[in-house]
Design a protein that fits this description.
The chain has 277 residues and is α+β, with helices and mostly antiparallel strands. It is built from seven helices and eight strands; from the N terminus they run H-E-E-H-H-H-H-E-E-E-H-E-H-E-E. The chain has helices at 5-17, 55-67, 72-76, 101-107, 125-135, 187-206, 227-233; strands at 19-21, 29-40, 143-145, 161-169, 172-183, 209-223, 243-245, 261-263. The strands form two sheets. A six-stranded mixed beta sheet has the order 1-2-6-5-4-3. It is globular, with a radius of gyration of 18 Å. The model has no long low-confidence stretch (mean pLDDT 94).
Length: 277
């Protein structure tokens, strides 16, 4: 079975059993609570085939997170426009995204500006996980959090995927992430593919075999202006999953999104889902 059918099953469940809920945007959302996506990486790369995905955009964003980038222009210059609609609400420049995902991965709670309540100690969560993978892979403490209550008010957007955790069992590395807010039509397909890529990168960095990828989803929603596209998508049959070669790199921080190669990707046509800002 094509494992991305799990994603379509989640969409169907929300369409059939979801309840309407007000949101921070102008659109209501059909919403359920508590869904799980689970995929064995040996079955292929979990990239949605029932619509065409902007893979390069997804990889560029992940590269920015790994490098701790907080400049909107850095992403835009590389063709990634995901963050165009947002900026640091307390910043002095539209280019400033604030201490978003990558900043927390690489400099957790580090002082962001002169009015910040963060601390002077820089804690590199990603590097700590890599060190542990190479020295104590049996550890159950390899956790990376993007949710930092002290700095939420400085982020262009509070993190939707708030935490990820890796577990190694007999030379297989598994990754699970928790997502508080799940835009099922736009965000979740990107998040699945992004964390799958991160799992591949960590496996290569630590000379391990990719195992299970799992996402746990809290507030699962389909915005009312996405309903028609969602109904169209669940009628499409998933195609076989592609494979990915992340390329060769001395260490994960040298990985460039353009180095990765997507093989045998045969998606259906694109479905437009406007961003609910």
């Amino acid at each position: 079975m094509n494992k991305m059918k799990q994603y379509l099953d989640i969409i169907n469940n929300v369409l059939e059993h979801g309840q309407w809920k007000k949101t921070r945007t102008e659109f209501r959302a059909l919403t359920t609570f508590g869904e799980v996506f689970r995929h064995n990486m040996s079955d292929g790369f979990p990239l949605l085939t029932t619509k065409k995905m902007a893979v390069k955009t997804m990889w560029t964003e992940l590269e920015g997170f790994i490098k701790g980038m907080v400049s909107k222009k850095w992403y835009q210059d590389r063709g990634c426009n995901i963050w165009n609609e947002w900026s640091n609400p307390l910043g002095n420049s539209d280019d400033d995204l604030g201490p978003i995902y990558g900043y927390q991965w690489r400099k957790f709670n580090h002082v962001y500006d002169e009015n910040d309540d963060g601390c002077l100690t820089r804690y590199d969560q990603l590097q700590q996980i890599i060190n542990t993978l190479k020295t104590n892979a049996e550890s159950r403490r390899m956790v990376c959090s993007a949710w930092n209550p002290v700095q939420i008010n400085r982020m262009a957007l509070p993190p939707c995927h708030v935490l990820w955790n890796v577990v190694v069992i007999q030379d297989k590395i598994n990754l699970v992430w928790h997502q508080r807010s799940c835009d099922l039509m736009l965000g979740i397909p990107f998040n699945i593919a992004s964390y799958a890529t991160l799992l591949l990168l960590l496996a290569k960095e630590a000379n391990l075999t990719p195992g299970i990828l799992q996402g746990t989803f809290a507030d699962c929603h389909i915005y009312e202006n996405h309903i028609e596209g969602a109904e169209e998508q669940v009628l499409r049959n998933p195609n076989p999953l592609p494979t990915v070669n992340v390329g060769d790199f001395p260490c994960i921080y040298d990985w460039n999104s353009s180095d990765s190669i997507l093989n045998n990707y045969n998606p259906h046509s694109k479905i437009n889902f406007p961003i609910a800002v």
